Amino acid sequence: MIWKFVLSTFLTILISTSVAFAKEDEMTCATCHPDIIEKPHLHRPAKLENCKACHIPTTVRPKVSKFPSDHPMVRPNLGDDPKKVCLQCHTKFASKFSSKKNVHSAIEAEGCLGCHNPHGSDVPKLLKITTVESKLCVSCHTDKEAWKTDSKIKEHKIIHQKKGCLSCHDPHSSNLPALLLKQGRGLCLDCHKQGVKTEDGRTLKSFTQELAKNRTIHSPVDGEEDCTTCHMPHASAIRKLLKDEFGENYDEFSEKKFALCFTCHSVDLVTAAKTSDATGFRNGDVNLHNFHIIATPKNRGCGTCHEIHSSKNPTLIKDHMPYKDYKLPQTYKKMPEGGSCVTACHGLKVYDRKKPFANSKGR
Description:
Largest sheet: 4 strands, antiparallel
Oligomer: single chain
Mean pLDDT: 83
Radius of gyration: 34 Å
Number of helices: 13
Order of helices and strands: HHEHHHEHEHEEHEEHEHEHEEHHEEEEE
Helix content: 25-40%
Shape: elongated
Low-confidence stretches: 13-25, 60-65
């Protein structure tokens, strides 16, 4: 009977030990790190519990309670490049980083983990924080967060839309400065090619259509510069995201009120009563900008006669004069050494830079 008892005990110990080892062998990283697979958006290796894709498997059996102090180790021989482990699988980004002139400084400093979680996330693309309201970007670019605390500052509407900063910037790399997606006005026209609704209910016109139908385009819009010559791309305390003050169509003139224009144009364009070179809009040496704005003050601004972006007429002359809710007709004709103008304010007036024209006084 004793041998039966001994045999029974031996078999019990053997079976229980086998089961224990079986359970130990079934242990995975998620056994101790369950939070890894509890997120709604999982990195594929984490979802498959293939931790070996990024980590060296420990040689210590799971039954050992104390793991090495350096557990888990990232794969070795990666040099000083913190993104190298990610690029073993994400090869298309390796190609981008090597072929583009500019790589996001966060990637160079911290690798991909500056913005992404390696295992799982509550938001798509394994991002640490949502890009809505540009929250992820301002976690590093803290100077931009100040916009939200100053009620005078109005942010570019696109920042609050789904893609936020990524509407204009590549988060990884680009051949352009500031990681821009496109060069010049082409980037702005990606959105402004159609009417854009503003917060106050207005609809901005399609600038693609405007530029296509007009023959004269303001040089900052048409040249090597772009819309940011006059506009702030992110936020501004001045209306229409302008960089500096641009007075109303009918506004008492001062250099400060029209400071935006004088970032490119000399103030002598307006202030010099007589000139031979400050402006082409002169009758002999009489500065007709000065005549209209200062000598006979009626609170006219630059926008009374000139379009801002483009015009059908030379020198950006409008084909109408805005006055309150009215659009009053204005006809301008360019001549070799001057031009002529008929408006709702006055009849035909002619100017000539070489041979001053004697216009009748009054309207």
